[in-house]
Amino acid sequence: MGQIKVTKCDIEGLYIIEPAVHGDSRGYFMETYNQRDMAEAGLNMVFVQDNQSMSVKGVLRGLHFQKEFPQGKLVRVIKGRVFDVAVDLRKDSKTYGKWFGVELTEENKKQFYISEGFAHGFLVLSETAEFCYKVTDFYHPGDEGGLAWNDPEIGIQWPELEGEYKGNCSAEGYTLKDGTPLNLSEKDQKWLGIGETFSF
Questions:
Q1: Is 22 a catalytic residue?
Q2: For 97-123, b where at least 16 C-beta lie within 10 A, e where not — what string?
Q3: pLDDT tens digits along 86-102
């Protein structure tokens, strides 16, 4: 391996990517993506688009997936701190319905690679967060699906979040520990649980 360390997660298809950071009194330099290092780790994805978003504290985006055109995503935070989550939606997987989460921050500079076949979401824990991600397929309007962020069947343990499940995915009644209200889009408060969304 060269400038980038790739570590497999407990769920097959998920990877933590850690770049080598070269710093001195002037600042730092790092490679955020290296195709050769990825290939040596068995990752041969091809990215077609880079995206960037900014969110304020308490925003939860997700859980999102594309139905017919699934995307692999390489995600990182360039400002702030988020808790990033992937949920396995591959129906033949031994970890179907299981989740994995990792804290991504501007300090730890970790990246999270999420292969095709997962739902994805994140919760912003800092005052603001800037989130960057590379994807393996283009966004297709009308192809987006979603799952309830608080589905008890999945059981994601969102850090610093307090509130009581009331049978739906509304943000009402949920706050971070410092009192910041949970902030979801209207669409993300209408998704159903995994058992209602998929039936095999």
A1: no
A2: bebbbbbbbeeebbbbbbbbbbbbbbb
A3: 999 999 999 999 999 99
Beta-carbon contacts of 142 under 8 Å, excluding residues fewer than 6 positions away, are: none
Q: What is the DSSP string of 69-127?
A: S---EEEEEEESEEEEEEEE--TT-TTTT-EEEEEEETTT--EEEE-TTEEEEEEE-SS
Q: Which is the catalytic residue, given 64, 113, 120, 174?
A: 64
CB 85 within 8 A of CB 125: no
> Pick the catalytic residue: 15, 113, 133, 174?
133
Angle, vertex CA 67, rays to CA 96 and CA 17, nearest 5: 60
Tokens of 181: 């209200």
Q: What span, in angstroms and rounded, lies between the C-alpha atoms of 140 and 66?
A: 8
Beta bridge partners of 19: 4
Active site residue 120: no
Neighbours of 34 (CB within 10 A): 16
Q: Helices (DSSP H) in the chain: which residue ranges?
A: 35-40, 194-197
Asked if residues 74 and 17 have their Cβ atoms less than 8 Å apart, the reply is: yes
pLDDT in tens, 98-136: 999 999 999 999 999 999 999 999 999 999 999 999 999
Taking alpha carbons only, the member of 150, 8, 17 closest to residue 77 is: 17
